[in-house]
Amino acid sequence: MSDIEDRVRKIVVEHLNVEADKVTEKASFMDDLGADSLDQVELVMAFEEEFGVEIPDDAAESIQTFGDAVAFLTKATA
Amino acid sequence: MFDLTGKKALVTGASGGIGSAIAKALAAQGAEVALSGTRMGALEDVAKGISGKTHILPCNLSDLDAVERLVPDAEATMGGLDILINNAGMTRDNLFMRMKDEEWDDVLKINLTAPFHLTRAAVKGMMKRRFGRIISITSVVGVVGNPGQGNYAATKAGLGGMSKALAYEVASRGVTVNMIAPGFIASAMTDELNEKQHETIMQKVPAGRLGTADEVAACAAFLASDAAGYITGHTLNVNGGMVML
Lengths: 78, 245
Known about the structure:
With 78 residues, chain A is mainly α. In chain A, 59% of the residues lie in helices and 0% in strands. Chain B has nine helices and seven strands. Chain A binds chain B through residues 38, 42, 45, and chain B through 124, 127-128, 169-170, 172-173.
């Protein structure tokens, strides 16, 4: 498990108050983890802060699952 | 009771009568206040009259680039922003059929578009910190209308709708969004009314007098405080009973 995955999972677990083992690669924030649209915005803000990157709105919209977030942030911080 | 110690506030239109009274009231409750406006000298005078910590952040609200910078500047200067007071406003009155495009556009820009930009910028940090107070100064004319003020009334009604929509979105994050709607408040403008005009106005006001800027400012101090944490999407009418909504 990569360091980025760990950090993203920690944020998701804290923000959405879900069990860590529910946060799988295919898990959708909204459909599987109970996030509403505001939670989704807050997650993106938390990712930006944690990784010191800017996530533009169109990219933010494409981040639907835990896997999407890890992939985006892996690329953005590479 | 309405303690604001440690809170950081930004007041637009802070050199005006109501704006300066709000800045003073927030500071009196312990808030650190950033004063924004266009008249540097007048802002300095307001700052001098406040014993607490103040900052002057000049901003022309018709310049969108400057508007976009104002909240980040305030956050950088004070290390955060807990209270945003959208107070700045202007009138450019004309009968509806005569109203020029510029008269419409100018008033919308200052009274509605600038508050949208400022609020959007401010609410992000407020959500993160799980505390925020957005307070916009509207007007009774946004609800009841006023001849010659089609543009102004539209912006004040618009602020109301905007605030309520936002209030829904951020309520669960400890951010409240409220309005204060003053009626006739004593100001440089009302000083110029002649006796006849004054009398005509007074007939509409059950309280039988003009309101004071301090009476408006007290509402802002209340709404900004922890005590008002369960009030959101609300308008406090400060009009001496002129319109009871």
